[in-house]
Amino acid sequence: MTTGITAEALRARLAELLAPSQLEVIDESAAHAGHAGAAPGGGTHFRVRIASPRFAGLSPVARHRLVYDSLRDFLERGLHALAIETL
Q1: Are 38 and 80 in contact, with CB atoms under 8 Å apart?
Q2: 7-18 and 60-70 are packed helices; what angle lies between their axes, rounded to 10 degrees?
Q3: How far apart are CA 57 and CA 11, in angstroms?
Q4: Which of the residues 5, 6, 51, 83 has an alpha carbon 20 to 30 A from that of 37?
Q5: Which residues pair with 50 in a beta bridge?
Q6: Is the pLDDT of residue 26 over 60?
Q7: pTM to 2 decimals?
């Protein structure tokens, strides 16, 4: 069973809500097969590299919170791990 979560779905949501100037979403699920939270078929572990004008004046913690809040429903649907690099 897979979560149905894809890098493209995450990319589309972040593009819609944060209007990034730079965005990269990498599905790292295969590297975590057999680990806690990993679902067969993937869609559980992602890395996001993002720069956005919405980050101006925000602390690193506030930037990460903004990304997490943008993807909250994905987290509720089975996104287990999200590595965030704000640029």
Answers
A1: yes
A2: 120
A3: 23
A4: 51
A5: 23, 86
A6: yes
A7: 0.84
CB under 8 Å to 17, separation ≥6 — which residues?
70
Q: Angle 29-3-24 (CA atoms, 0-180°, nearest 5)? A: 50
- How many other CB atoms are found less than 10 A from the CB of residue 61? 8
- The strand pairing partners of 41, in sequence order, are none
At 37-78, the pLDDT tens digits run 444 555 678 999 999 999 999 999 999 999 999 999 999 988
The domains found in the chain, sorted by start residue, are 7-86 (3.30.300.90)
Residue 78 near residue 60, CB atoms below 8 Å? no
Sheet strand arrangement including 45-51? 22-27, 45-51, 81-86
